[in-house]
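Is this the right way to post structure tokens for a design question? Let me know if I should format differently. Anyway, here goes:
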């Protein structure tokens, strides 16, 4: 999952809580990059302590995947996308590369950004309309 899906989950939007709880937290993981972005969001919020507790409670239930194994995919994809003129942000590249190298499905609302990456599996659990 990427940060936007996690935020929607935290806010109880789009029936994500029931879907995630039905599937089971053991089936989900986030990249260290997603965790960093969630911490950043909580730190800059007006309800910092409350939001940090939400992030901590969430991350206690799921796996946090290190990015070390995704570095080669990140470099390859960044070069390929730059040559095509279709670059995406470094943090999103790392999140996508982590999903690719771990053969996982990336749950995101931002399909257009991530579908530029090769060999990525994507699911959008939120209707963008």
């Amino acid at each position: 999952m990427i940060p936007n899906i996690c935020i929607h989950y935290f806010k109880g939007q789009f029936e994500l809580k029931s879907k995630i709880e039905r599937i089971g937290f053991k089936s989900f993981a986030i990249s260290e990059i997603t965790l960093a972005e969630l911490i950043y969001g909580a730190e800059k919020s007006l309800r910092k302590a409350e939001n940090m507790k939400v992030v901590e409670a969430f991350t206690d239930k799921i796996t946090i995947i290190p990015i070390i194994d995704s570095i080669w995919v990140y470099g390859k994809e960044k070069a390929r996308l730059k040559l095509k003129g279709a670059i995406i942000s470094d943090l999103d590249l790392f999140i996508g590369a982590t999903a690719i190298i771990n053969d996982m499905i990336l749950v995101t609302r931002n399909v257009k950004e991530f579908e530029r990456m090769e060999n990525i599996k994507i699911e959008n659990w939120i209707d963008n309309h």
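Format looks fine. Someone answered above. Worth noting: The radius of gyration is 15 Å. The helical segments are 3-10, 16-23, 32-43, 48-61, 71-84, 90-101, 111-114.
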